[in-house]
Write a structure and sequence with these properties.
Low-confidence stretches: none
Strand order of the largest sheet: 4-8-7-6-5
Radius of gyration: 17 Å
Distance between the termini: 32 Å
Order of helices and strands: EHHEEEHHHHEEEE
Number of domains: 2
CATH topology of the largest domain: Ribosomal Protein L22, Chain A
Helix content: 25-40%
CATH architecture of the largest domain: Alpha-Beta Complex
Strand content: 25-35%
Shape: globular
CATH class of the largest domain: Alpha Beta
Largest sheet: 5 strands, antiparallel
Oligomer: single chain
Number of helices: 6
Length: 226
């Protein structure tokens, strides 16, 4: 069983994780544990149902650790974003048999985003470069001596975490190239992202965000917290 190693985070952030299998038995166990699938997923493929249930299970566990005792399964909001209870903010990530949720009190932090990805192969990474990063971003990874597949996977995950953290302020999808890497701090396991364009009145061009990261078992986890 894979051990999920998350980036360092303050004690005010509560997290819960689950290693799951994509099969009917796993889905049944999650339903017994109280996870309810929405009607919109009634006819979805098993993989989507299990991933949703695993993520919502982790969200409920993390919320309970943070003091929210509601047993209700988080509903799906616009653009498939989870609807968190009033007074809380959080983030969910799932895929490749791993699910994670992080939760904080809304009064302690403004934005929170988590993402877990399997590190791409070099063959899979090559055609994605032009869509995910610019030449200066590629140069930062090269200067650090990182293999393309590890660097691109880190950038992809970091920008996903930032998207989740900024979504409540932006309310729409934005492009990977709307965000740029401006610094890699390997000793601190941190990558700095900067908005290359203004996304909303509170998310303006030039804004900086620190994304913490960790590698484990050919996976990468990233955390955006501000």
């Amino acid at each position: 069983m894979t051990e999920i190693i998350l980036p360092a985070m303050p004690e005010s952030i509560c997290q819960a994780s689950l290693c799951y299998t994509v099969d009917a038995a796993q889905l049944a166990r999650l339903k017994v544990d109280g996870v309810v699938l929405p009607e919109s997923l009634a006819n979805a493929v098993l993989k989507r149902q299990v991933e949703f249930a695993a993520g919502r299970f982790c969200a409920r566990e993390a919320l309970q650790k943070r003091g929210c005792d509601s047993p209700a399964t988080l509903a799906i909001g616009q653009h498939r974003a989870p609807l968190w209870p009033a007074g809380y903010l959080g983030s969910i990530s799932h895929g490749d048999g791993l699910a994670i949720a992080v939760v904080a009190a809304a009064g302690e932090w403004h934005g929170l985003g988590i993402d877990i990805e399997r590190v791409l192969t070099n063959e899979a990474a090559q055609p994605l470069v032009e869509h995910l990063m610019t030449a200066p971003e590629l140069a930062i990874g090269n200067a650090a001596g990182l293999a393309l597949e590890h660097w691109l996977s880190l950038i992809f995950s970091a920008k996903e975490s930032l998207f989740k953290a900024l979504y409540p302020f932006v309310g729409r999808y934005f492009d990977f190239l709307d965000v740029e890497v401006c610094e890699l701090q390997e000793q601190q396991s941190c990558i700095m992202l900067r908005l290359a364009t203004s996304l909303s009145p509170s998310c303006v061009k030039g804004s900086l965000y620190c994304i913490r990261y960790s590698y484990f078992s050919n996976n990468i986890a990233t955390l955006c917290l501000f």
